[in-house]
Inverse folding.
């Protein structure tokens, strides 16, 4: 009878270990499946429409993990300018420079046609946003 009780205890222990192992393996597989194909996790896509001094329009589609517009623009590489006390001061877009000191020109920043009251460094971005950079003379 003692051998039978020991056999039952060992059997139950083995079964519990097996169930625990199966559970752990299945949870790991679910986690793998949940994260499969998420190399792009956190990426968003925005469009920046550039309107140059000749009035020509060029769309730049940017896929980024950046949270701020300035970071996405600099990462994309078609915008240049110094990062100053108040953030990125956009001076050059697609190779065209606007210089207030020379001819009172600048790059106006807007979103969906409305002039932004924040600079690129303070502008949050989310998936699907549309911005415009327009060459403007004051």
């Amino acid at each position: 009878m003692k051998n039978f009780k020991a056999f039952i205890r060992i059997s139950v222990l083995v079964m519990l270990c097996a169930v625990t192992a199966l559970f752990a393996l299945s949870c790991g597989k679910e986690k793998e499946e949940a994260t499969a194909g998420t190399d792009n996790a956190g990426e968003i896509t925005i469009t920046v429409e550039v309107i140059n001094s000749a009035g020509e329009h060029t769309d730049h589609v940017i896929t980024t993990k950046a949270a701020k517009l300035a970071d996405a623009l600099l990462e994309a590489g078609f915008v240049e300018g110094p990062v100053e006390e108040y953030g990125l001061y956009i001076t050059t877009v697609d190779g065209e420079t606007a210089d207030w000191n020379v001819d009172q020109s600048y790059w106006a920043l807007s979103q969906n046609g409305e002039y932004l009251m924040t600079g690129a460094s303070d502008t949050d971005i989310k998936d699907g946003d549309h911005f415009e950079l327009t060459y403007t003379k004051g």
Notes: The beta strands are 44-51, 57-64, 79-80, 83-84, 87-88, 92-93, 96-97, 105-111, 114-115, 130-137. Residues 2-35 form the longest helix (34 residues). The chain has two domains: 1-36, 44-137.
